Amino acid sequence: MLPPGCYIVALAGLGFYLRKRARAGALVCAVLAGVMWVGSSKVFCNALMGPLEHAYSAPAKPEGDVIVLLCGGFRGGGRPFSASERLEHGTLERAAAAFKLYKDTGLPLLISGGAPFSDSPEAEAASVYLRELGVPDNKLIKEENSRDTQENARFSLKICGEKGYKKLILLTSAYHMPRSVLLFRKAGSLEIVPFPVARRSGGPRYYADYLPGGGLEARMALNEYLGLLYYRVYYFFF
Prior knowledge:
Layout: H1 5-18, H2 23-40, H3 42-53, E1 66-70, H4 89-105, E2 109-112, H5 122-133, E3 140-143, H6 149-163, E4 167-173, H7 177-187, E5 191-197, H8 216-237
Parallel strand pairs: 1-2, 1-4, 2-3, 4-5
């Protein structure tokens, strides 16, 4: 009943209706229905996500001078009960993992995220949430000017240089880690320890994984592949 399932059913029905009237049109409908089905299924999404998410593994005992948390979205408006309500799912996953890593290591947290699509920096919203969890202000450093991952890297490394941090633990979603590592390494020569979190692929499969779904993970993965391609070409020429 929900998209894209209803669209697939409509295309299949139209293809069945056209099978004797316009065979070419019926074939196009069938192909489109099949592409939408496969492309939105969790099995296909996992196949796209897998190579990105397993490019790096989190070290058992991470060591560094600072934890760099990359934000991944912000929800504006309203007066929430908890600051967590103002964080998009990706940022909330990363911030919760960063808090656990902070508890394990005691390292300062550098939160990177500006306001590319809102009137309030993502880093500010994430820092409020981390303060709610119990992280003291003297352990929180905010980078609030970046608009994308390339600027996350450039501005965060500038702060690290000013504070004398030589080795940073880079924390972001596992699917986002390959592009983040590429851009951080291109932005400077500091030692980077990747710490990927919130994997979406893998695990047991169920019959529903073969049915049409929202296809969100496929869009996220394709965005990363296109980003990697763009920046590899960009740095090749510049």
